[in-house]
Each structure stands twice: as C-alpha cells, then as structure tokens.
Design brief:
With 121 residues, this protein is mainly alpha-helical. The protein has three helices and two strands. 31% of the residues lie in helices and 7% in strands.
Length: 121
C-alpha cells in the first residue's frame, strides 16, 4: 500500500520502491482499499530486500510494528513508522477491511506531509 500511495503523491522524478524482509503475495484487501481512493496496485508485486541496490537508495521508511524490522545496509536516511500489519487482523471481514483502511489513511496522511502536500506541511 505504501508504494502505491507514495507513487500517487511523489513528484515524477522521485523513484519509489518497496521491499520487505518476508515478501508474500499482494493482499487482496490492500488492492481493494486502494481502489477505493483511485489507486490501482493490482499489477504490483511483493519484493524482497535482496532486490534493492543499497547504494542507490536515498531514504528508507520502515513500517514494522510487531514484526521484526529488516536491517537495511547502506547510507540511506532512515525513518521508522511503526504501523500494525492489517493482514494480521483476526476479526470479522468488515473489521479486517477497516484495519486496511486505517493503515491506508495513516500512510496517505504521512506521505502527503512528507511530499509537502499535507495540512501539517
């Protein structure tokens, strides 16, 4: 979700990449809640940190809260936003969707501020 939102907000010259310590398949609820705000990530694929070239990365934002955060070697500026993984929610379908919406909205707010588009910018 973060990659899709960041791509929708960042200037075109900013290269956005996303990778995790344990890549898995794209979660259908992530696709669904981003479609709800006009962002299509259906073509995105989960990638591992080994796919990143550390020397070409200027900034890293980690989102892990309960899981182990990956170690990213390199000289990149690092920021940590500890967000709960909405895929880990074990409740009703509507509550699971709401968990994804909550994370989506939090990411969108933070990324708008990061890219100078938020009310707090």
């Amino acid at each position: 979700m973060a990659e899709g939102i960041a791509r929708s907000l960042a200037p075109q010259w900013v290269k956005i990449s996303s990778a995790g310590s344990s890549p898995a398949s794209l979660h259908p609820r992530a696709v669904q809640v981003l479609n709800g705000i006009g962002i299509d990530i259906s073509g995105h694929r989960s990638k591992g940190l080994d796919s990143m070239v550390a020397r070409s990365v200027d900034a890293v934002i980690t989102l892990c809260a309960e899981e182990v955060c990956p170690v990213f070697l390199g000289k990149a500026h690092r920021v940590h936003w500890g967000l709960l993984d909405p895929a880990a929610a074990t409740c009703s379908e509507e509550s699971r969707l709401n968990a994804f919406r909550t994370v989506r909205d939090d990411l969108r707010h933070r990324l708008k501020v990061l890219f100078g588009q938020g009310e707090d910018a």
